[in-house]
Amino acid sequence: MSVLERLRPYPDMCVMISAGAAGIGRALADAYVEAGATVHVCDVSETALSAFRERHPGCLATQANVADPAQIEAVFQAHAERFGRLDVLINNAGIAGPTGGIDTMDDEAWSQTVEINLTAQYRFAHRAVPLLKNSSKAHIICMSSVAGRLGYAWRTPYAATKWAIIGLMKSLASELGPDDIRVNAILPGIVEGPRMDGVIRARAEQIGLSFKKMREEYLQKISLKRMVTAEDVAAMALFLCSPAARNITGQAISVDGNVEYL
């Protein structure tokens, strides 16, 4: 196999993506479908799922709130009935969480951020690993963030979960390596789109700046002076599911234009 051939994703992959109907998840799902994979997404938004089903009628789309263990179990039951196998799990679900000082943080908002961003990744991995052990191209991708390698004032719940995901990933890479299951994390940077606009707006209000000025300050933090796209993140995920990446595991890989600080 030539180097160029090794860059092509593995054929006939069966992929599960949490929060896969919108945002980065949608870009991931679209990319894997284009690569010929069988894709199952879950998402909390029925509107986003309906649009996904229209785009990809051959894929499976299940409504689920990843904060609810029973709904995660239902996702895996639907997956087993439809496919009976799994090659790639992409733990993509996450929320921005609250913006504010630690002394004003609300316990419920903190707990919700931990439940959705971190505990759901454990629950999906817990259910997926028995299936992945039967795959010859098994891979778990844990979606973290540039906030998983940098401190992030006023966003402590989000940053804490994203750092914890790196620890989860590295531990699973060691644990599952003997079963030939690779585990990596992708750390998206400042991703263009409505969700990032909301984060910038909340931060601007927190410190008393205009949205435009706050956005300019975010761009100044990036060496390349531009945001990344969801498709940039999807391209990295596809590479990690190619023969060229067969010895890449336990890595936290940034796709961020080199964010220097937050």
From TrEMBL:
> Whose protein is this, by species?
Lichenicola cladoniae
Q: Which SUPFAM superfamilies match?
A: NAD(P)-binding Rossmann-fold domains
Question: A Gene Ontology molecular-function term?
Answer: oxidoreductase activity, acting on the CH-OH group of donors, NAD or NADP as acceptor
Q: Which residues form the signal peptide?
A: none
Similarity comment: family membership: Belongs to the short-chain dehydrogenases/reductases (SDR) family.
PANTHER family from the entry?
A: SHORT-CHAIN DEHYDROGENASES/REDUCTASES FAMILY MEMBER
Question: Would you tell me the protein name for this molecule?
Answer: SDR family oxidoreductase
Lineage runs: Bacteria, Pseudomonadati, Pseudomonadota, Alphaproteobacteria, Acetobacterales
Per the record, the domain of life is: Bacteria
